[in-house]
Design goal:
This protein is mainly β. It folds into 3 domains: 26-138, Acid Proteases (Cathepsin D, subunit A, domain 1); 157-281, Acid Proteases (Cathepsin D, subunit A, domain 1), CATH 2.40.70.10; 292-375, Roll (Pdz3 Domain). It is 14% helix and 44% strand. The protein is built from 8 helices and 32 strands. The strands form 5 sheets. Strands 13, 14, 15, 16, 17, 18, 19, 20, 21, 22, 26 and 27 form a 12-stranded mixed sheet that branches. A hairpin with a 2-residue loop joins strand 7 (79-87) and strand 8.
């Protein structure tokens, strides 16, 4: 017995007490929403000021080039080095991130966005997205996930460019790969090039846009489609009638995307080191099968004018003859500007808000329109 105890003592001394008896590190990060985006606060290199970063599982990690210059980060080409990124109580060291992303596209949400935290940074953790409690948990406990009665357990492969989780899904009878993407709003987005094939196989209630409803960097789309899938299934769990959008996607990432309108109906656990994904159903799932909408997509120009970027055909906006390029001057008696554009976005996306009054200008013509939301399908 004494000899056995001595062996244990020597093992502890050789391996180190902290290694044998280390505690799991778990860190909770509260987040807020900017439209559909998940936004967390971060400090860079122990800065006093906090900055807003989007957590996007379908993206690489970026920092705004202007902020990288302001903070004096070491840069080479399109890359910058962050010595430490403080997210609540967790400190992530030695981060190399891109500076080539144009954060101006986030102006429409009326809060400053300073960068993106992508899967190539998250992939060292087990990450839990609790959308009901607005908390992201980072844990170094990466033991294998076990099946759960209310859960969908899947294995995934990592995208070779951004480390995003890619799972198998079935659209109708077609088995395809889909990327888990917390950075896009719709339940599903398919490459525009897939529309003709899927429309023959498993789509119904198809609507085309006049102008752009959703777009990605490095693309120049002219229109989108929105439709309902007859059925989509994940690991054998079938979801009928989900909305899907067709868009031009960046060439290197052009594949189906599984977005927040679907993912937020679950507590999502991504065990990156084990390549496991678990979706745990909340009690009251409300999967998106239709849109209660004005049919508008609003954006902001480089000179801070608010304009109509796209309109779904046969929507209330289309019936009111609103066109892409119309300038928005006011909403609900409020003069509009980039600082309060986020308020209009919330009204457009709030199903409890049924009517919105807009003042629009097209050339020398100015008119006031009361839009009453309708179901798109």
């Amino acid at each position: 017995m004494k000899k056995f105890a001595a062996v244990i003592l020597i093992t502890v001394l050789l391996c180190g007490y902290s290694t044998l008896f280390s505690q799991t590190q778990v860190h909770e990060l509260p987040f807020e929403r900017a439209g559909h985006f998940i936004v967390v606060k971060a400090k860079i290199n122990n800065s006093e000021k906090s900055y807003n970063f989007i957590v996007d599982t379908g993206a690489l990690t970026f920092i705004d080039k202007g902020l990288a210059d302001e903070l004096g980060l070491k840069q080479r080409g399109m890359m910058a080095k962050i010595d430490s990124l403080n997210l609540s109580e967790v400190k992530i060291k030695k981060i190399f991130c891109f500076t080539s992303f144009d954060v101006k596209q986030f102006k429409k949400f009326s809060i400053p966005i300073n960068g993106i935290i992508g899967s190539n940074l998250l992939d060292r953790y087990k990450v839990i997205f609790d959308f009901k409690e607005s908390i992201i948990t980072l844990s170094d406990d990466t033991t294998s996930l076990k099946p759960a009665d209310n859960g969908i357990l899947m294995t995934f492969r990592s995208h070779p460019i951004n480390s995003a989780p890619i799972v198998k899904l079935k659209a109708g009878a077609k088995v395809i790969d889909g990327m888990i993407d917390t950075g896009q709003p719709y339940p599903l987005v398919f490459p525009l090039a897939d529309f003709t094939e899927l429309n023959k196989l498993c789509l119904s209630d198809t609507v085309r846009s006049n102008g752009i409803m959703v777009k990605w960097p490095m693309t120049k789309p002219k229109f989108n489609y929105i439709a309902r899938l007859d059925s989509v299934s994940f690991a054998g769990r079938i979801f009928p009638g989900l909305l899907c959008v067709f868009a031009e996607l960046p060439p290197m990432l052009s594949m189906p995307l599984i977005g927040t309108d679907f993912l937020t109906q679950f507590k999502m656990i991504i065990n990156y080191p084990r390549h496991q994904l678990m979706l745990l159903s909340y009690k009251a799932n409300k999967l998106t099968e239709n849109q209660f909408t004005t049919g508008l997509n609003v954006n902001v120009t480089n000179d801070n004018k608010i304009y109509i970027e796209g309109v779904w055909k046969n929507s209330p906006a289309d019936k009111a003859k609103i066109k892409p390029g119309d300038i928005v001057l006011a909403f609900n008696s409020n003069k509009i500007n980039p600082d309060n554009l986020g308020e209009l976005q919330k009204l457009l996306n709030n199903d409890n808000v049924k009517t919105i009054t807009l003042v629009l200008q097209n050339g020398n013509t100015r008119r006031e329109i009361i839009l009453t939301k309708e179901m798109l399908f």
